[in-house]
Amino acid sequence: MIKKGIGRQIVLHYFIVVFVTLFMVEIIFTLTIRTYYYDTIYNHMYTHSIWASDYFQKFARSNSERDPDYFTEMLRSFELDNTELMILDRNGEVKASTNAFQADKAIQTGDVPVALAGGVGKWVGRQPSTGELVMAVSRPLQIQGQTQYIARFVTSLERVNSKLLNLTFLSIAVAAAVLAIVTLFSIGLANSIVKPINNIRDVSAQMARGKFDARIRGNYKYELGELAATLNYMAEEIVRSNQIKDEFISSISHELRTPLTGIKGWSETLTSGGFDPEETKLGMGIIAKETNRLIGLVEEILDFSKLQQNEMKLVIGQVNLKELIQETMLNVWAKAEQKQIQLKLEDRTEQPVIVSGDGNRLKQVFLNVVDNAIKFSHEQSWIHLVISLKEDGRAMVEVADTGIGISEEYLHKVKDRFFQVNHQGGGTGLGLAISQQIVELHHGEMGIHSELGVGTTVTVTLPVAEDAELPDASASAAPQGDSSSGSENAGRLDPEKDDQA
């Protein structure tokens, strides 16, 4: 007995479809073969009745004045095997018959009135005297167009029905054999489907219990193979995500412990007292710096959490892309100076590029990208920032460095959450993941192209604001004046361009 499930449903559906089909075929076959046999018998008696009628007309004309004692000759000439030939008068009385037992009553079956009316009558029914099933065919015997007698052929259908019954039993046996074969085939088919599903279910249950090293074995085809491959891939991704999560927890614990240790140490030191103002100022500066570092780490984690829950709200406005990049460069200038890295800005547009977005969030993206470029660049190198317009009208910012680069093995993973190529470099591994999502919230794209030992280029593409209100000359003078306040450092940022921030 097949237990409940898909296997039983498959077998049951196959069984029902084949059973109904065979049942209909059996009925059609039985009716067809019965009709064929009955029609053959009828046609045989019908043909002989024509010959008998023709003979009678010819014989009767030549013996019109004699008593019809010629019926005996007629019966002998047209008698059929296993068939009774009777000559009836107009009242249905038997005048002559090939059967020695004469009927004691007039025959009034349905074929007789038809013959009296000039047609050929056919009747199938049971003989009143014997109860056996017979077929009767009656044809009028006419003289000068008037029906005088009736030639009636009667044959038993019992032998025919016996043969039909045997054929029916044989066809039922064949149908049962076909049904059994189809059932066995459907069971095999059901097992070929159910066994892989059960295997996949068992492995999935192991995965649900946290055993992610379990894998689905077997070379399954079609949809089952795709399902097995998908579940195996899911398990691999979960293992990878857990590894990344564990590494993140370890990394963030270290990142948090370092500033906390500094804050705790200097707090205890300053609490003990006895320091001159310079030492106190130094200690307070370190505490403030480490506090800001902690705040940055916590804010990065909070930003990522908001993005994951779709809770980050953007304050949309019109942002001058060049001014935003200049502010970013000024914010990271001190860090670049420590490694003697030059920041070069090239604006390839003919007029200010205005994008619609959240200026603070976009600045966060570029700060992260440029900060990474500085972190992984060699000393006394350069970082090239380019603003341009693409053929489709979108604005593009490229940040290119000549740093250590990223290997092809890790290039497609760098924007994954918690992923870090160099775990010794610090950080949470969330910066690029957050930047990617912020850019996507602005309906833009972020791409990374890198070659190990050559450098990395990060491109950020953003849609240009429609109907942007460009600042006039007097209004634009203020930002330029503000940025010129840092012009003393402009030579350090890019000695080759006077207008670079």
From TrEMBL:
Protein name (record): histidine kinase
Q: Among the entry's GO cellular component annotations, what is one? A: plasma membrane
Task: Quote the EC number.
Answer: 2.7.13.3
Q: Which residues cross the membrane?
A: 12-37, 167-190
Task: State the residue spans of region: Disordered.
Answer: 465-501
What ranges does the record list as Basic and acidic residues composition bias? 491-501
Principal subcellular localization: membrane
- Which keywords does UniProt give here? ATP-binding, Cell membrane, Kinase, Membrane, Nucleotide-binding, Phosphoprotein, Transferase, Transmembrane, Transmembrane helix, Two-component regulatory system
CDD domains recorded: HAMP, HisKA
Gene source species: Paenibacillus oralis
Per its record, the protein catalyses: ATP + protein L-histidine = ADP + protein N-phospho-L-histidine
Q: For this UniProt entry, which residues form the secretion signal?
A: none
Q: Name the PROSITE patterns on file.
A: HAMP (PS50885), HIS_KIN (PS50109)
- Report which superkingdom the organism of origin falls in: Bacteria
> Where in the cell does this protein reside?
Cell membrane
Membrane-topology descriptor:
Multi-pass membrane protein
List the Gene Ontology MF annotations in alphabetical order: ATP binding; histidine phosphotransfer kinase activity; phosphorelay sensor kinase activity
Q: Which InterPro entries does UniProt cross-reference here?
A: HAMP_dom (IPR003660), HATPase_C_sf (IPR036890), HATPase_dom (IPR003594), His_kinase_dom (IPR005467), HisK_dim/P_dom (IPR003661), HisK_dim/P_sf (IPR036097), Sig_transdc_His_kin-like_C (IPR004358)
Start and end residues of each HAMP domain: 191-243
Residue span, Histidine kinase domain: 251-466
